[in-house]
Amino acid sequence: MANKEALRDLQTRLAQRMQQARASTDTVQSWLAVECRGVGLLLPLEQAGEIHAYTPPTHVPHTRDWFRGVCNLRGGLFGVIDLGAYLGIVAPQDTATSKDQARLVAVNPQFGVNCALVIDRLAGLKRADQMKKLEGPPDGASARPGFAGSEWTDGDGRLWQEVRLASLVSDEQFLGVAA
């Protein structure tokens, strides 16, 4: 019971900090840090929407394996995408995910796509001035998708991959949920 209360408190604090960061005139890039299958991902704050407790979606037949189904979030019907599965992240065998920590992160409504991403765990907020951007290959030299942003390391040396949600939700493959 204490774990659920602690997670609820964390979620409340994150929501408050997300609102403050969005309202701030500070120009430093900020992200919602999440984990999917043990991999650290950064979702731009201005592109992320509300965070919801994980509720199992209703299955939709004849869809891709990463499309988990649909669910009702605050009276709206949202498609639910398993972000780790969509990105093709293979979980290490020693990585156990708990549905108690799983969350649905809605994409900002400004993009006109009612979708929520299943993430395994919230990891807080990150700011560019607290991290180090890794130098990547020259533009056009990699086969990374357009929604894959920069890679960053935090003060503990942990690697984080930025995911540009605006590009992700307009990606043809992402929108093609039919199997």
Q: Topology, please?
A:
Elements lengths: L1 H22 L6 E7 L2 E6 L3 E6 L13 E7 L2 E7 H4 L16 E5 L7 E5 L1 E7 L4 E2 L14 E6 L5 E5 L1 H4 L3 H4 L4
Parallel strand pairs: 2-11, 5-7
Antiparallel strand pairs: 1-2, 1-8, 3-6, 4-5, 6-7, 9-10, 10-11
Core attributes:
five-stranded mixed beta sheet; 179 residues; 11 strands
Structure description:
The chain contains four helices and eleven strands, in the order αβββββαββββββαα. The protein is of the alpha+beta class and 179 residues long. The strands form two sheets. A six-stranded mixed sheet has the order 8-1-2-11-10-9. The protein has a five-stranded mixed sheet with strand order 3-6-7-5-4.
Radius of gyration using CA atoms only = 16 Å
Sheet with the most strands, sense and barrel status: 6 strands, mixed
- What's the total number of strands? 11
What ranges have pLDDT less than 50 throughout 5 or more consecutive residues? none
**Strands in their spatial order, largest beta sheet:** 8-1-2-11-10-9
- How much of the polypeptide forms β-strand, as a percent range? 35-45%
**Percentage of residues in helical conformation:** 10-25%
Q: Determine the structural class based on helices, strands and strand pairing.
A: alpha+beta
Average pLDDT confidence is: 86
Q: Helical element count?
A: 4
The quaternary state of the protein chains shown equals single chain
Label the overall shape. Answer: globular
